[in-house]
């Protein structure tokens, strides 16, 4: 074969390769094409005046924004920034996204031919019984082959594999956003829980001082011959009980502070969050506008993740179905082969081979059919999981909207209770000083006032936490600019 003949073979190989690649793009792809499942959904929330919602769809590319800034708390803003930069679970999620994307690139690489250079050297002794006339023969073999291989994707197995891997990479990205949103909401909820405890601690600390003044009052009355030892014992009991409650609140605050430290990626041993919550703390949560856009629910990353995993499971059905069909591969090899190193790259040492191969599954012991049924069952499972996640999303929004409405009514009633409890405590103390009532009424009135004030602080924290839960249920995305622009006439 002369040089022109060799060129003709190589050119023919390249033409055949590109023809197969071009043809495979338009060949049959077995397995079902993916279509998102439909979900039946009501037209509006139960609290219809607060907004409406519809089926969630993945919108991973939509930026969620610094939604926590709507609360206008610099301490929360700093914690959210630190947590986003230093939280270890979030860093692990970033690594999982990179891993999933690399896996998708591996699957995409199967769409292209492979070309390998595999030089080798062997020294071999041939048996004299194999070649009797030559006796003992020992020979070297130097080889520099360039191997080409390509699977013609007639049935879409490789394409479905890449489709599945790409959907899994998108699901990994959605999982990252879900972890990010969960982290941000956990930081906000723990922060407001800690501030509510600070308000309770401030209230109880003030009550401890009041109890001490009452102990002094009771003792002075006893020393003046007006009171009795029973009143002193009751006053001391109330003082000790209130101090015990203060210590319990301090312990709970430390636990929340440590939880915030872990979320922020800091060591709890060195993390400090000073108290700045005043007594009678009653912040007003930011009001979510009535006309909530239905697209916000579509931005929930957990719904997006479930939908992408569903698409991946659908693609794997095609991969399993393609196993029933033959596999056609193109292989070629060209290079140099010689028994002497000096003549390895001479023109006469050239070698080449070319030829297609086909693999047809005849009998696999039922493995292909079982794998196909397994892929179908996995898809049905993914459908159920996706629909369940949609229902959970709807339930989260309903619970948050209901909580915001009922907690607002409860907080208003609680504030009235605080006002009346304080008035009752003042009147009881005045009547006791005048000798009209016993100290028991003073104890009861003060105890009721303390419980009412602590309840008000707890409700204030719950309202803020519920607002955070609503924003999380809607997938995040609120900003101060959005709220202010929607509140304008």
Mean pLDDT: 83
Computed structural class: alpha+beta
Question: What is the CATH fold-level name?
Answer: Outer membrane efflux proteins (OEP)
CATH class: Mainly Alpha
Q: What summary fits the major beta sheet?
A: 5 strands, antiparallel
- The low-confidence runs, each spanning 5 or more residues with pLDDT under 50, are 1-26, 48-56, 483-489
The general outline is: elongated
List the secondary-structure elements in sequence, H or E.
HHHEEEHHHHEEHHH
Counted beta strands: 5
Approximate helicity band: 55-70%
Could you name the CATH homologous superfamily?
Outer membrane efflux proteins (OEP)
The radius of gyration over CA amounts to 38 Å
Beta-strand portion reads 5-15%
Second-tier CATH architecture: Up-down Bundle
Key features of this structure:
Outer membrane efflux proteins (OEP); alpha+beta; single chain; disordered C terminus; disordered N terminus; about 500 residues; about 60% helix; 5-stranded antiparallel beta sheet; about 10% strand
Overall description:
- The chain is an alpha+beta fold and 489 residues long.
- It has a single domain, classed as Outer membrane efflux proteins (OEP) (Up-down Bundle).
- Helix content is 60%, strand content 10%.
- The chain contains ten helices and five strands.
- Strands 1, 2, 3, 4 and 5 form a five-stranded antiparallel beta sheet that branches.
- Helix 4 packs antiparallel against helix 9 (439-473).
- It is elongated.
- It starts with a helix and ends with a helix.
- The relative contact order is 0.15.
- The model is unreliable at 1-26, 48-56 and 483-489 (pLDDT under 50).
């Amino acid at each position: 074969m002369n040089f022109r003949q060799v060129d003709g073979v190589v050119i023919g190989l390249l033409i055949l390769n590109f023809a197969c690649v071009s043809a495979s793009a338009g060949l049959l792809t077995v397995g079902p094409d993916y279509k998102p499942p439909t979900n039946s959904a009501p037209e509006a929330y139960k609290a219809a005046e607060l907004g409406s919602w519809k089926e969630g769809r993945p919108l991973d590319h939509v930026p969620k924004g610094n939604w926590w800034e709507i609360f206008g708390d610099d301490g929360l803003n700093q914690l959210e920034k630190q947590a986003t930069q230093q939280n270890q679970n979030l860093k692990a999620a970033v690594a999982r996204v990179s891993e999933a994307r690399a896996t998708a690139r591996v699957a995409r690489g199967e769409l292209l031919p492979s070309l390998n250079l595999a030089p080798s050297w062997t020294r071999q002794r041939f048996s004299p019984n194999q070649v009797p006339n030559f006796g003992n023969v020992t020979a070297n073999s130097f080889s520099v082959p360039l191997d080409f291989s390509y699977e013609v994707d007639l049935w879409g197995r490789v394409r479905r594999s890449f489709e599945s891997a790409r959907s899994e990479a998108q699901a990994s990205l959605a999982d990252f956003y879900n972890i990010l949103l969960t982290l941000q909401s956990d930081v906000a909820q723990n922060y407001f829980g800690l501030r509510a405890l600070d308000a309770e601690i401030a209230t109880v600390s003030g009550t401890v001082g009041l109890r001490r003044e009452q102990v002094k009052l009771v003792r002075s009355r006893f020393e003046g011959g007006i009171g009795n030892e029973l009143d002193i014992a009751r006053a001391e009991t109330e003082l000790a009980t209130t101090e015990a409650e203060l210590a319990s609140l301090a312990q709970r605050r430390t636990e929340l502070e440590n939880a915030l430290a872990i979320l922020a990626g800091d060591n709890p041993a060195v993390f400090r969050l000073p108290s700045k919550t005043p007594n009678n703390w009653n912040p007003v949560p930011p009001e979510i506008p009535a006309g909530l856009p239905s697209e916000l629910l579509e931005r929930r990353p957990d719904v997006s993740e479930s939908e992408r995993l569903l698409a991946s499971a659908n693609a794997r059905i095609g991969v399993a179905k393609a196993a029933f069909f033959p596999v056609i591969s193109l292989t070629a090899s060209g290079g140099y082969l010689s028994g002497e190193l000096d003549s390895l790259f001479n023109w006469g040492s050239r070698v080449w081979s070319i030829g297609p191969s086909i693999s047809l599954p005849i009998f696999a012991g039922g493995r292909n059919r079982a794998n196909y049924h397994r892929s179908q069952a996995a898809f049905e499972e993914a459908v159920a999981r996706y629909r369940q996640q949609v229902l959970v999303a709807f339930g989260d929004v309903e619970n948050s909207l209901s909580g915001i409405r009922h907690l607002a009514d409860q907080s208003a009633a609680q504030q009235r209770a605080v006002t009346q409890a304080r008035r009752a405590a003042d009147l009881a103390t005045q009547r006791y000083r005048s000798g009209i009532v016993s100290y028991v009424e003073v104890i009861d009135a003060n105890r009721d006032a303390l419980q009412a004030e602590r309840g008000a602080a707890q409700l204030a924290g719950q309202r803020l936490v519920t607002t955070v839960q609503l924003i999380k249920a809607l997938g995040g995305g609120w900003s101060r600019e959005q709220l202010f622009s929607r509140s304008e006439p």
